Amino acid sequence: MNSEQQNATLRKMAQLMRDGLKTQTEPFPETEKEFAAILEELRRLDPGDLEGKMVISGFVDHPYGPDRQRCMECMYYLVHRQWCDLPELAVPVEADWWCRLWRI
Amino acid sequence: MANLLWLQGGACSGNTMSFLNAEEPSACDLVTDFGINVLWHPSLGLELGENLQKMLLALTSGQMPLDIFVFEGTVVNAPNGTGEWNRFAGRPMRDWVTDLCKVANFVVAVGDCATWGGIPATAPNPTESEGLQFLKRDHGGYLGKDFKSKAGLPVINIPGCPAHPDWITQIVVAVATGRGGELSLDEFQRPKTFFTSFTQTGCTRNMHFAYKVSATEFGQRKGCLFYDLGCRGPMTHSPCNRILWNRQSSKTRAGMPCMGCTEPEFPFFDLAPGTVFKTQTVMGVPKDMPTGVDKTGYIKLTAAAKAASPRWAEEDIFVV
Ligand code: SF4
Ligand code: SF4
Ligand code: SF4
């Protein structure tokens, strides 16, 4: 994805969330087992199904929960590329967003 | 000449394979340059049948001195504590082990099976396997925790699945050349010279560990394998990134996580599905933290490290 496409995708995702896209923020995967089940669901999607990815992984456009978790601390977040490097997602993200695949 | 006898209990021969790959010194150099007389070894021994039995009896009776007894594999106790499932030279192997350990100057356990039971002793442990002086983390094992060989040392444990050839040859040479008494052992009776630092010491991905950049697939040329792929490098005592494998590389350098094979709990989580090559987390936070780091500190450190990470840390920089 070149930077033009990346920016466009980022804007599209932000717009979807602003428009109130309902995503599955709960339940948070407690262990590897639940985490793996979500990844399995994501793998069944068409890799281009942006909305599907966002719904299943529970995207929100703000920090989440009492610990104010966000992409910024998540191990999959690449700060400079503003990118979620989880292979099943592989989407641009903002540091202040969050999804339930968050791992530190 | 120092007499060395190498026997195998419940084992896959992996440590023998590793030993035969030794380069400096090689298995042959041990004989020609260091005066080690290999009395018998499962892959190198010449004696068969009654002749082998005679030699073993000469050793256990004290007729022939035994300087170094190397044991590879578990002590098999099944069925019902008899050891009959692993017979050797006319009797259960465990009976030979008992008698040979009484007469040996030094006893060296090579590989995880002989040290702490390894994979065979993993639940449900159908072969009733144990290591020579440990069963996993419990001190005791087959010989009991008070066992000392004639030279006054407990079993010298060289763990690994398999152990690196240099760990084996260097310890054998030290013992054969009369420096065995100088070996300093850790709480699991591992030679400190090899098992004080961590697998992580010398890993080429250390900067990615520091900047919290994760590898998300095997063999990736960026990122550290701790965060997602279950690398146990920060918790595992081994010199794998100081004394390289095949003099070339290591698991973590090549993009495969360390599985912690030199620690008594290996294989971790009794190999339950989903526990291998995946960092175990509870609510997104690693279950096993690097030695000496607590959770709160870890979360703070993550935020700071990510914020400070340089651009290059996110790019492929290795040509391994
Ligand atoms: S996995 Fe979720 S929380 Fe982590 S960087 Fe990707 S989108 Fe953000
Ligand atoms: S890959 Fe493993 S050994 Fe290397 S720095 Fe990361 S955690 Fe440490
Ligand atoms: S890198 Fe880890 S699993 Fe591999 S040999 Fe070394 S200690 Fe064992």
Automatic annotation (TrEMBL), chain A:
Organism per entry = Roseivivax sediminis
Instruction: State what protein this is by name.
Output: Uncharacterized protein
Q: Which domain of life is it from?
A: Bacteria
UniProtKB/TrEMBL annotation, chain B:
Q: What is the lineage of its organism?
A: Bacteria, Pseudomonadati, Pseudomonadota, Alphaproteobacteria, Rhodobacterales
Q: Give a GO molecular function annotation for the protein.
A: hydrogenase (acceptor) activity
User: Which cellular component, as a GO term, is one annotated location?
Assistant: [Ni-Fe] hydrogenase complex
Instruction: Enumerate the residues binding [4Fe-4S] cluster 1.
Output: C12, C113, C161
Q: What is its EC number?
A: 1.12.99.6
InterPro entries registered for this protein in UniProt: Cytochrome-c3_hydrogenase_C, NADH_UbQ_OxRdtase-like_20kDa, NiFe-Hase_small_C_sf, NiFe_Hase_small_N_sf, NiFe_hydrogenase_ssu
Q: What is this protein called?
A: hydrogenase (acceptor)
**Sites where the protein binds [3Fe-4S] cluster:** C240, C258, C261
Gene Ontology terms: biological process: anaerobic respiration
What's in the keyword line of the UniProt record?
3Fe-4S, 4Fe-4S, Cell membrane, Iron, Iron-sulfur, Membrane, Metal-binding, Oxidoreductase, Signal
Similarity-based family = Belongs to the [NiFe]/[NiFeSe] hydrogenase small subunit family.
Its quaternary organisation is: Heterodimer of a large and a small subunit.
Major localisation: other
Indicate where this protein resides in the cell: Cell envelope
Q: Does the keyword Metal-binding apply?
A: yes
Q: Which cofactor does it need?
A: [3Fe-4S] cluster; [4Fe-4S] cluster
The residues covered by the Cytochrome-c3 hydrogenase C-terminal domain are: 198-267
Q: Which reaction does it catalyse?
A: H2 + A = AH2
UniProt binding sites for [4Fe-4S] cluster 2: C203, C224, C231
**Boundaries of every NADH:ubiquinone oxidoreductase-like 20kDa subunit domain copy:** 12-174
